[in-house]
Specification:
434 Repressor (Amino-terminal Domain), about 0% strand, 5 helices
Length: about 100
């Protein structure tokens, strides 16, 4: 079960998170390439944090059923932490 993920602040962080997401979902790079309409080389460069077209990022995310949300930088709010705790710990507060 994934924990709190730090904010993504650079292309290498983004690539690392995309690769981890793909693996968590059990999607092979060949299948993601087919579903996204991008070559395995482009997806590999994206996962390595190399410069690729932004449209490649959106195509890969779409193929995995994900999107991007922009947030102001900084610490999570109290509401964010309460929502996280409710999701991760449930009503009882225990794991």
């Amino acid at each position: 079960m994934p924990g709190i993920v730090d904010k993504i602040n650079n292309p290498v962080d983004l690539g690392r998170e995309l690769r981890a997401l793909r693996k968590r979902l059990g999607i092979k790079s060949v299948q993601l390439a087919k579903d996204s309409g991008r070559s395995r080389d482009v997806l590999n460069r994206l996962e390595q944090g190399d410069d690729v077209y932004v449209s490649s990022l959106f195509d890969a995310l779409r193929a995995m059923g994900y999107s991007i949300r922009l947030e102001k930088r900084g610490l999570p709010s109290l509401t964010d932490m309460q929502e996280y705790a409710a999701r991760e710990l449930g009503e009882s507060g225990e794991r």
